[in-house]
Structures are given as structure tokens and as C-alpha cells.
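Continuing the batch. This is chain 6 of the set; chains 1 through 5 are on the previous pages. Same settings as before, nothing changed between runs. Recording input and output for traceability.
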Amino acid sequence: MATSTTESDTSTVPDSDARLSRSRRHVWRSPSDQPVWARPALLGIAALAALLYAWNITESGYASYYSVAARSMTVSWKAFLFTALDPSATITLDKIGGFLWPQALSARVFGFHAWALTLPQCVEGVVSVLVMYRVVRRWQGPAAGLLAAGSLTLTPVAASMFGHAMLDGMVVMCLTLAADQYQKAVGTARLRPLMFSGLWIGLGFQAKMMEAWIIVPALLVGYLVAAPIDLRRRAGHLLAAGAVMLAVSLSWVAMMTFTPQDARPYVDGTTDNSAFSMVFGYNGFNRFEPGLTSGADDGPSGDPGSGGGGPPPEGRSDRGEEGGGPNSGGGEVAPPSGAASGPAAPPPGAAGGSRGPNTATQGPDQATQGPDQATQGPDQATQGPDQATRGPSTGDGDASPETVAPAPGSGGWLKLLRDDLYTVQIGWLFPLALFGLIAGLIRHRSGPRTDQARAGYLMWGVWLAMTAGVLSSFSFAHIAYLASLAPAIAALSAAGTVALWRAHRTASAGWRLWPLPAVIVAEAAWTIHLASDHTDFAPWLIPVVSAAALIAVAALGLAARDVRIGGPRGDGPSEGGPQAGGLRVTGPYVGGVGLGVAGLLAGCVAMFAAPTAWSLSVLDERYAGSAFEAHAGPPVGIGGPGGPESTSLTAAQRRLLAYVERNNGDAEFTLSADSWSTAAPFIQAEGLPVLPLGGYSGTARSVTLAEYKHLVAKGRLRFALLSGLGPATGEPRPDPPALGKDAPETLKINSWVYSTCTEIAPRTYGVTTSGKGPMLTLFRCA
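Output for chain 6:
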């Protein structure tokens, strides 16, 4: 897929040299090898994409877990390099955080705001749309390229995803750029662009690890089949590009592996402090089969759903994929997935019966509590990502994510076709894309090995099949995973539409006149089927689609009748003919040109109205999704968006912090926190060197008890913050429970703090409890 199989009619444009000169001065003018309308139309599509993605940028919100890391990366270059959760770089994220590098750089330049974190994703979305046009234009001409760019822009999951600070935006852009470079290579057998393709896949790996490799079989098969060189050289080129891909993909893993452990942060999501275990176990093969790769963190009980390497339980969010647990903000929060209970199972007398009434039955909306009553997190009204994908809150703020009723999307090989949680976000054009693929492969079955049109169908088809197969093979709840299907669906849908129109307008009689009307009817029926569950959201959609489909079939049928009556009028262009756009009407269809074009336009309305409506709905913040979940249109089996999260400390938190800073001396750490969510508000608001314990799952051995005691003994750490404790009564506390040698280090540390350190009553730093126990309790250990 290097050069276009359909070149433009140069007689319809000005002199090539003059056009090229003007295009250098005016970006809105098309290059000499494209029709005059191509560039202006592309810029219009790009402007629409920018509008959709950036419309709600100031209200795009934060995904708490990731935004904490982004804040840390703006404070410390060491945290930036190792993608650490905290400014002191004591523990990494539970995945490679390369997707945060653009966000952190943006926040360094513009300040730490939700819009600053989202801005890079908006840019990535527009770049993806522009590159999508270039890839499909080379393959099927400008008209198909524009249709593909528009389809990608108006894919609902993409319209929401690129408008929020998510990891999936970067990987989609990188994979689209990889396809672009591959396309340059496969038609000319040039090694350099093929190696650039490997580079882009490697950068995508830094964004979302093994998901970036999902297109490798597609590029490998396409190049091995169609590159115009002998088999030995094709294999050599692929090996060279593969080496580049692996080198870039594994660069962060290698850095973590060869850096001494005492000079780098602990690798979250592991029990062996190995980046390999985190990437290929915790976030890789253990998603399909828990325990398959040793060294991945399976939680305190070995339950893959409790923060370990296995796949998340059905209907719940991926461990950490879009933020923390419910109400992650540093106040009265549910423990991270995998924590046994409370602040990693606080001792008897510290949790459970001695907790205040606001600690056991609060729902996700905890904003009614006064700021002086507890050290509440910045915005407890914000739903955590593990609630955003599993239906309404149970009203139990302390319930672990696994206790929430599962939402749709729980599994099954056919979930991409029958689960409304997914189909309305990605599946409107499934029939069109599938027909485009099958028809394209059949139409070019007898071409030479190097036929670039067939190579394109082969590459996009393998991309679609591989991605759909992988997504169907395990249970996932984050809708943004679906975005990796969007480029293939957009390309095949565009190619299918243009090919159908070409075949229809060049056919003189017989069955060749009816595939286009048949596909329009099939698409309309599929759309009506999907939209029938959402008549309250878009009540006009089904009537419009039905009417447009009827008009399209009638117009195309009458146009075909005109063809039969008028008879052939010359040879119309084939798919490889001179008309780059595939829309210029010549040959036997001249007699029905008006009706034919009208039928085509009506058919496009029938086929594309639904994804357009869902995507445009993101202009209304109610339907735009959230930083926790990419979702356009009405919520289906998920909680509503969490809304923007404050990054300012509450009055109680400020008073607590002021007390700590007055009494902290020259300690290296401001304080330790028993979970990342307890540490989050202090890191986000002030970029403070807070020591988070336990990682995302609550079980990571980022700091051992011996190391913690050493920090205290040396005066590097003086204060500890535990969540879920009752009021300071001045009465003797019960002894902590005995812990086995295999107990998580976080439990051991919390038990030691509870039994050894001095509890600081809230009134000491000016916070009154009004009879209600503080949700966070401060201890002084030195």
C-alpha cells in the first residue's frame, strides 16, 4: 500500500508546478496529486475533531491514580523518567507510564490543570485523524481517505477518549502512525519506513504495553505477502524492523532491570520488583490466566481480582486502568483493590466498631461533610473508576470494588456484537466494514502477489480480526480498550463505501447494481436494532435512518433503471482507474447521475447518522464520558461520570499539613500514607514528598518494615497517616493482631505505627470532630 491505486485526473486541476508552489504558501490548497476539494475537506474534518475533543477540556477531570503520578512527574525528573507515583520515586505505577510523559510536560509548561493533562490527547486525536486520511488516500484515493478520517473522528469511543487524559489516546495515534510508515514500505520495499513503523509500535508499547503489539501480525502478513522483493529480503527487512520495535518497546523495562534496585523505585504490581513481571505478567499474560507468570502481584489471598496479575473480575474496572478505587481522594476512601480492609486492615479497635458513623455507610457522595470534621479528600463526590463501569453505587463507601454489582460487558466471545456497553461505542459500522473487507478480498483475489489494493485489505482485515479476537477473549470493563478497533473499522468502512459506489455506477445491468442498496439496508437494520434501546436519547434517529434507507434504495433503483433504458455509454472507470476520488460519474451511469448521487447521499445518512449522533453528543458534558471512562452518549450499565475533581486541600487537610510542616524538622518525607489514595491530595495539591505504601493493590513491598523503621530512626520520616481509624479518645488502644511472616509489608508497617507511634488528636492541629471520628488519623513516630 504505497502508491494509490487510483490517481487523480490532472486535467481537472491547475498546472502541477503552480499548484505545488501555492500549496507551500497556503495549507488549505490541495497538493498537485489530489483534487482541489481534498485539502479543504480534510482541514474541515480536522477542525471538527479538534472541536469535539477540546470542547469540554476545562471540565475533563482527573483520573486520580494517574493524575497523582502526572503531578509527581512535574515535580521530579526522576519520577518522570521512572513514571513513579510519588515525587520521591519510591514506587512506579502498576504499568509503564509513557502515556503520562506528554501530560507531565504539558503540566510543567501550563501548570497542573485538568485541561493541561487533556491537551496532549486532543492533539493526538487530531494527528490520528490526519494520518488516517493519508493512509487510506494512498490506498483507495482521496474520497475514501476523507471518509475514513471522518469515520475515525465520529467514532463514539474516540470522541470521548481523545477529550480526556487517558492512556489509550497515545497508543491509537502511535498505531496509526505505524500503519502509515508500513504503507510506505510495503509498496516500495524500503527498509527505512518499515523500521520507523517498528519505532512507532515501540512508542505505543510505552503507552499501553502489549496492546501496541496487537497490530504486528497485520503488518507482518501484509509485508511478507505483498512487498515487491524476494522472500529472503522480505524476511530480513521484517527482522530488522522487529529488532527496532523490540528495542524501543523494552527500553523502559531494560532501564528498570539494569538500574540497581536501591537507585530506582519499586515496581508496582509485582512481588519480585521486576519490570518484566509487571509488564508481561501483571498487565499481560496473567490477564488471560491468573498465575501464569510468576512474580506478578496476586494480592494477599492470591485472588486475581484483588489487584494481582490476573484479569479483573467480570464487570469491574481494570486494576488501576482509569484511576483508583471508589472515592479515591485521600479522605474516607475504600481501600485499593487488594487491600484486606480499611488502611490495609487496621487493627481491632481502630476500624469497624470504633469508626464514626460517616465511615461505614457513606456513599460516593461525601461532600456533605464539613471540612473541619475530618481530613477528607479533595472531592469525594467523584466516583472512582471502579464504580464508573459497574453500575450505580451501592451506597457503601467502604465496599471493595468487587462487591459492586457487575455491569454489562462481563464477557463472552460475542460481547462486541451483542453487549450494548460496547456496540454503541464502536460497532455501528460492523456490517459495512465486514462487507468492505470480504468484497475487497474477493474482488482482488486474482491479482499479482504485490497487488497493493489487496495488501491493504489483508492488513486491515488482520488488524480487525486480531484486535476483535483479543478483546473477545478476556473480560474487560474499560470501554477505551475498543479504540484500537477504530482505525481498521474506519478504513474498511470507507473502502467499502467507495468500492460499492464505483461498482454501482459502472454496472450496466444485473446483480452488480444491487450490492450498494443491499448494504445500505443491512446497515440501516443494524442501526435500528442498536438504537431501539436508546429511543429516549435520540428519538429521531430510527425514523431518519429508516426514511434515508428507503430513499437511498428507491433512488439507486431508479438510477439503475435509467441505466438499463439508456444502455451503456462507454467504459466507466474501474477501481484502479483515473478517478482518485471515485466520485466522478462517467460511463453507463450518466443517465442516472442525479438520482444515483442522491441515493448515495441518502445511503450515507442511513449508515453514518448513528455514530455521528453519538459522537456529537460529547459536546454536551452529560454525554461526554469522564477521565475514568471513555463513553459517548447515554450511559449504558455504568455509573455517571465522576465530574471534575478538585486538586486543592480541604481546610482540615491544610491544618494537618501545617502542623506536620511545623514539627517535621529536616525530614526527607512530609509523611507516609497507608495507601496511594490517602497520599493523593497532598501530592496533587502541593507536590509534596509523601511516601505511599502498598502501591495500587495495597500489597506491593515498596518499603519493608525494616526499611520503614530505618527511615524513622534516621529522622527521614516523622509522621504517618492511617485511614479508617476511630476518634482519639485518650484510652489505651488494644494490641494489634498478630501477623504472619507472609503478611503484606503494608499491614506490618501499619500495625507497627499503630502500636508504637503517638496518635495526634485532631484538635491538636485545629480540627474538631463533633463526635464523629476522623477519617484519617495522624501519628508521630519520631
